[in-house]
């Protein structure tokens, strides 16, 4: 197997500056920020940018991979201190908030859980889906989430909550309300003793 040649010190500095400036540009302008402008802000030519990042997707991954992994890790931290049903809702809230706060993350996270074209995205997607699976299955065992709910559905719904909140005011103020409406549909239907649907609370 061929060994990966380590970067020279100047190449490493260019790489790190590009990621720093890309993070700022994506935060200001979203994932459609000009790559040429990012290169200029980093003090390098466009050719240098493309040597490190052959396309926009590669640059987005480099900027946001740590953020996606951190989101996945938060699931276990929250689960350690809250009951399963509450832990799931709290994690979904944090997930939705991060998708709004970090521009470009929502698009990349959506790709991470559905797109297998990139090894980096596949790894990130596996981490997030694994986190969602642990939380959903724990809540199902607790009886606070319907047994037919799939973890991937939860992630898609969180993506939708973030999008809806952005459309409402662009700041994510409605996330908890939308999640409250969403979680009502996740709960198992209560049944009366005669087998009919129970009264709504």
UniProtKB/TrEMBL annotation:
<dbReference type="GO" id="GO:0003700">
    <property type="term" value="F:DNA-binding transcription factor activity"/>
</dbReference>
<feature type="domain" description="HTH tetR-type">
    <location>
        <begin position="12"/>
        <end position="71"/>
    </location>
</feature>
<feature type="DNA-binding region" description="H-T-H motif">
    <location>
        <begin position="34"/>
        <end position="53"/>
    </location>
</feature>
<dbReference type="InterPro" id="IPR036271">
    <property type="entry name" value="Tet_transcr_reg_TetR-rel_C_sf"/>
</dbReference>
<dbReference type="GO" id="GO:0000976">
    <property type="term" value="F:transcription cis-regulatory region binding"/>
</dbReference>
<dbReference type="InterPro" id="IPR001647">
    <property type="entry name" value="HTH_TetR"/>
</dbReference>
<keyword id="KW-0238">DNA-binding</keyword>
<dbReference type="Pfam" id="PF00440">
    <property type="entry name" value="TetR_N"/>
</dbReference>
<dbReference type="InterPro" id="IPR009057">
    <property type="entry name" value="Homeodomain-like_sf"/>
</dbReference>
<dbReference type="Pfam" id="PF21597">
    <property type="entry name" value="TetR_C_43"/>
</dbReference>
<dbReference type="InterPro" id="IPR049445">
    <property type="entry name" value="TetR_SbtR-like_C"/>
</dbReference>
<keyword id="KW-0804">Transcription</keyword>
<keyword id="KW-0805">Transcription regulation</keyword>
<dbReference type="InterPro" id="IPR050109">
    <property type="entry name" value="HTH-type_TetR-like_transc_reg"/>
</dbReference>
<protein>
    <submittedName>
        <fullName>Transcriptional regulator</fullName>
    </submittedName>
</protein>
